[in-house]
Amino acid sequence: MGGFIQPIFFAFSIFFLTQERTHRMSWQAAVETTVTGFGYELVDCERSAGGLLRVTIDKLPAQADVGELITVDDCEKVTRQLQYVLEVEGLEYARLEVSSPGLDRPLRNAAHYARFAGHEVDVTLKLPFQGRKKYRGVLGAQPGVEDVQAWRLVFDDGAAEQALDFTLDEVREARLVPAFSFKGRGGEPAPDRKPGQRGVIKPKKAVPKKQSGESAEAAPVQDKVDGGLKQ
Questions:
Q1: DSSP secondary structure string, the chain?
Q2: What's the longest Cα–Cα distance across the chain?
Q3: Above pLDDT 90, what percent of the chain?
Q4: Is residue 191 predicted with pLDDT exceeding 70?
């Protein structure tokens, strides 16, 4: 993954009157059918106690793996269709939010784990193991185990390389560790940054060579640290 991608979202607020009726489709099925019907991947779908229905979508793996990203138009299109489907099915909600997953994409099922095997992942267990719940390491399948629910996280604890074997039902949450590109604009390597240094670091300007017969010396050039990019 290259560059920093902020999650985008399109939100629509609507309130329905409470009514008693037999639902022909659950809200989970309505969301999944709508999202996949438009040719997107349903990454996550959750409903809060306050009525917020949050839906996370992405391009299909073949598209996402070549750099295609979810746009505002994608989110708006899915939002409008979900609004219609949920109303027709009589499924109540207070607010609907459709968004892209961002760099720290959640892993919710075995297919997600298989797709991102070999990537660095943050895993939070439901119960502590050896005194901790949170682990960060490289995701992979457990050797010799064919169960799609069984996975391994390889990490370095500072003393030696360790392996944590777990099953999906033991996981509270798992997310990709964001991978950033530190190349400057135009593909040039970014300047070196000293520990603790913030802001945008401008590369050193080349000092012009003194021409023959020139007596004046060029003024020394110093590094400059800005608080942000100029508008």
A1: --S-----EEEEE----------SS-HHHHHHHHHHHTT-EEEEEEE-TTSEEEEEEE--HHHHTTT----HHHHHHHHHHHHHHHHHTT---SEEEEE---SS-B--SHHHHHHTTTSEEEEEEEEEETTEEEEEEEEEEPTT---TTEEEEEEE-SSSEEEEEEEGGGEEEEEEPP----B-GGGPBPPP--TT--SEEPPPPPPPPPPTT--PPPPP----EESS---
A2: 94
A3: 60
A4: no
Residue positions counted in the chain: 231
Strands ordered across the beta sheet of 161-167: 161-167, 150-156, 132-141, 120-129, 171-176
Chain segment 65-101, per-residue pLDDT in tens: 898 999 999 999 999 999 999 999 999 999 999 999 9
Find out whether 35 and 81 touch, Cβ atoms under 8 Å: no
CA 147 to each of CA 37, 106, 164, 171: distance values in angstroms, whole numbers, following the listed order: 29, 21, 16, 16
